[in-house]
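Q: Predict the assembly, please.
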Amino acid sequence: MADTAPRDLQQRLEPYLAIIGPLAMIGLILLFMAVAEPARYFRASNLNIILLEAALYMPMAMAMTFVITQRGIDLSIGSVAALTGIIMAFAIKEFGFPAWVALPLALVIGSLFGLINGLVITKFRVPDLIGTLAMDLVYRGFALVLAKGLVLARFPDLITELGRGRIPGFLPIPVLVGLATFVIGAILLRRTWFGRYSIAIGSNPESAEMTGIAIDRYKVYAYVLMGAMAGLAGVMLTGKLNAIQATSAPYFNLHVIAAVVVGGTSLFGGRAYMLGSLAGVLLLSMMINALVTLRIEFFWQSVASGVVIILSVAFYTWLQKKDRDGARGLINSLMTPDNFKVLKLGGALVAVLLLLTAVGMLLSTGSVPSG
Amino acid sequence: MAVQDPIVSMRGVTKRFGGITALQDVDLDAYSGEVLAIVGDNGAGKSTLIKILTGVYQPTSGTVQMEGKTLSMSNHSEAIALGIDAVYQTLALADHLDPASNMFLGSELTTSILGFRFLDNKKMRSEAERVLFDRLGVRLKNMDAPTESLSGGQRQAVAIARAVYHSDLRVLVMDEPTAALGPQETARTLKLIEVLREEGLAIILISHSLDDVFAVSDRIQVMRRGRRAGVVRTAETSRQEVLGMIVGAAEEAA
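A: Predicted assembly structure:
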C-alpha cells in the first residue's frame, strides 16, 4: 500500500509535467534575477520589452506546435517572415498599397509559401528537414534579390501599431495578437478535425492512414498555417522595428522550435501542449532578456538557446521512458561495456588534445599578429 | 443460413505489386451471421485479400460484390460507408489520444457553433462509454487517459467499438485479434466475436491460431501462395486436414 500513493501522485501529475517544466524554469530565472539584478530586470519598461519580444514569436510557436505534433519541422520560417515583410514593404513603399490591403496580403503570401513547403514535402516526398532547409535558402535568396542591401523603413501607423502599439493602461497590441493566436490554436487543437488529426498523424501515421485520415492534406494545412503565422511575424517584426531588410529574422526557426519543445510538445510526434508552447516562448524571452540585463555578451545567447534545447529534449525523453528508476539504476546503466568503449574514445581524444596543446606551448614563438 | 446468398463475394481477384503476384484468381464468400476464418502461412495473401475487401488496395483484376452489386472502392472510407470495416492487428489506434477520440477517429461527431462545425468531445465521450459497455460489456476506469495506458484487451475493445459503432456495419474483418493477448483476454475476445455473430454481422477472422479458428468459426478458407487452397466447414473437418491444406501436403501427395 505504501508505494501506491506516490505512484498515484505521479500519475496525476503526469499530464501537467509539460507545464511544470517551463514554469519551474521561469521560476528559477525570476528567483535568480531577483537576487542578481532585481532593479533593472523587474522594471515595468523591461517587462514590456520581454513581452514585446515574446509576442513576436507567439503566432509562430502556435503554428509550430501543430507542425511538430505531426512529426514535421519547418526551418524556413525566418526567411518566410523576412520575405513577406519585404514584399509587404515594397507593396506599401513602391506601389503605394494602403496598409489595410498590404497587411492581409502579407498573410496570404506567407500562406502561399507555407503551401509550397507543404507540397514539396507531401508531393515531392522531400523529407521535411531538407525540404524546408532548402526552401529557407530559396526564400532568403529572393529576399536578398528583391531588397538588395536596402533597409526599408517608416511604415503606416497600422503596421507599427501591430508591431509595438499599446492599449493605454493595458497590454501591448502585439501581445494581444499573440495571445489571440494561442486561443485560436487551443481551439483548433481541441475542437477541430485539424487538431485531432494532427495528433493522430504524429502519434501513429500508419493508424491514421488506416482510419481514412488524409494525412498529406492535413500536413499541408499545418504548413500553410505555419506560413501564415510566419508572415504575420514578418509584419509584426517590420512594425516593431519600423524597418525591414533581407537579413532580418535570422534565427526564428530554432528559437521557435526551442520554445515549442521546451513547452513539452514532443519532437517524436503526438504530444501537443499549446499552453506549454506559450510558456516556452515566455521562458526563452525572459532568459535572453536576463542575459542582456546581466550585460553578458550577445553571442552567449546562442550558446544558452542551444543548451536549453538539448536539455529540454533530453529531459522529456527521459520522462517518456517507462522504466526509469532510482540513482542505482542510473549508475548501473552507465556501467556497460559499450559505455566503457565510448569513455576510452573520449579519454583518448582529451589526451591527444592535451598533448598537442603541450607541444604547441613548448614550441611557441610568442603571439603572431594576424594582420 | 443454408441457402442464403452471400453478403459479400469476391470473384477471380488478382493483385500484383510490380512483378510480384500476391493474389492469383481468388474467390471469397461471406454470409451474415457467420464467422469465416481465413488461415494460411505468412505471405499466403491473407492480408492482401482483406485489404482489397476493405478498400485499402484495389484489385489488379477481379470483382468485389456486395449483395450482387459490384463495388468499386478507391479507399477505406468508401468501404466503411458501405458497411465493411476492419479491426487490424495493430488496432490502428493513436496512442496519444484518449479512448473516445480513438473510437471516433476518422468519423468524429460534431456540433455547430455560429455556423462552424466543431468536434463534440462530450458527446463522443458519452457515446464511447455507452457503446463499450452496452455492446461489448467493457467499462474503462479512466476515459481521459491516453489509449497507450490501457491493457491489450481494453485497447482491442476500443478498436472493436470503433467498428461496431456504425449501425449499418455488415461485414467486420478481424486481423489477428488475439495475437497479442493473454489466455483470459483471448477467451473474452472470442466471446465478443460470438456476440457480434449473433447480432447478424458477417465476421471474417484472420488468425494463425487454429485453436481460435476451431473455437469460433463456421467455415475455414485456406490460403496458400496467393491462391485459395480450399474452403471447408469447421464442423466437418479436422485440424490435420486444415494444416495439410496450409502447408500443401494434400496437393503434393496427389
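Chain B is about 35% helix and 30% strand. The first helix of chain B runs from residue 46 to 53.
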